[in-house]
Amino acid sequence: MKTTFLTIKKNSIFAVLLCILAIGVFCGAYFPIKANATPKPVHTIVIDAGHGGKDGGAVGRTTGVTESELNLKYSLALKNICQQYGFNVVLTRSDMNGLYSPFASNKKRSEMEKRKEIIDKTNPDLVVSIHMNSFTSSSAKGAQVFYADGNESGQALAQSVQTNLFKTTENARKTAKVGDYYILNCTKVAGILVECGYLTNPDEEVLLQQEKYINDFCYNLFCGVLLYFGF
Ligand SMILES: [Zn+2]
Question: 184 to each of 12, 84, 145, 148, how far by Cα in Å?
Fold first, then answer.
């Protein structure tokens, strides 16, 4: 009696296991797991035009051009190039409005939190923040790329972009630098902040506004990004 009961029990367990196996095979055939089935088709980049709204950033001494409007122009030009090469692009701002809440008591903090929120939500492969530099001395010039201390992928991206700018763009610096910026510190993603040139240098102030220079600069920046990805 005891032997029979155990035999029945064994048979039942065997039958259940067979059923589970059959269901598994069926589900595997008809509902294949899609994650990892195909590689991510394109890279996603967040392009961050610095400043905006009431915060115009640096101002050109001769022409009065604001950093915020140039940052936007460069960001839109970079966006076009990235899209032409199949990148998925997300902009933190696409007009001259500020990113801060109009009700925020600390507008700078509100604006930076909004930028972080966009990066976190997008979860991109890289972040490129666009700025124009300024200095007390009008002789300072040249593009400089920054990365967050300790962010290895950010450092590799920064050096790749800096090297390509150095090779292609007059006055661009040779070596990327560590920069203590919120937009770089707020994420683990490979991030760089590009100071495209100095608005306090009279020659660069004019050069930085030329359409051809903007497009060439953004193309050379983008080529540095491609080199980082191993293209
Ligand atoms: Zn700036």
Answer: 60, 26, 12, 5
| C-alpha count within 13 angstroms, C-beta hemisphere, residue 126 | 24
Residue 32 CA to ligand 1 center (angstroms) comes to: 48
* pLDDT for residue 231: 83
| pLDDT tens per residue, range 148-197 | 999 999 999 999 999 999 999 999 999 999 999 999 999 999 999 999 99
Q: How far is the CA of 29 from the centre of ligand 1 (A)?
A: 54
Which stretches of the chain score pLDDT less than 70? 1-41
Pairing relationship of beta strands 126-133 and 190-198 according to DSSP bridges: parallel
196 C-alpha to ligand 1 centroid (Å): 10
CA 126 to each of CA 45, 48, 123, 151: distance values in angstroms, whole numbers, following the listed order:
5, 11, 9, 12
Ligand 1 centroid to residue 19 C-alpha, Å: 64
CA of 226 to the centre of ligand 1 (A): 25
